[in-house]
């Protein structure tokens, strides 16, 4: 049982690391966006939502995800680096928002199941 939890955590950690690196690299190399990268980030976000976020972390994760998603489109006002930073944050928000939707659904289900 402990091996399964460790393997699950390892897969979740790798999914987060790969998603973060892909978001940054894609934001730098292709600021206009790419559908293939977006789908990869969505799939990684699903893995992160399933494997990384524990019941204790739900509230903090959802608040942080909300702040990140809301701010992702507001960096274009910065000169020079604003568009690159915005592209990186938009890519990050793709996998974080996907994970947040899944975590929120799991939290609602857990609340409904306990009543």
Number of strands: 0
Please mark out the parts with pLDDT under 50 across 5 or more consecutive residues, or reply none.
none
Query: What's the average pLDDT?
Result: 85
Order of helices and strands, N to C?
Answer: HHHH
Strand content: under 5%
Number of helices: 4
Radius of gyration, CA atoms, in whole angstroms: 15 Å
Structural class determined from secondary elements: mainly alpha
- Portion of residues within helices: over 70%
Roughly how many Å apart are the termini? Answer: 28 Å
Large-scale geometry: globular
Main beta sheet: none
* Total of domains: 1
Describe this protein's structure.
79% of the residues lie in helices and 0% in strands. The chain is mainly alpha-helical. It has one domain. Helix 1 runs antiparallel to helix 4 and helix 2 (35-51) packs parallel to helix 4 (82-113). The radius of gyration is 15 Å and the shape is globular.
Features:
globular, mainly alpha, 115 residues
A few lines on this structure:
By secondary structure, this protein is mostly helical.
Topology record:
Blueprint: H1 2-29, H2 35-51, H3 58-71, H4 82-113
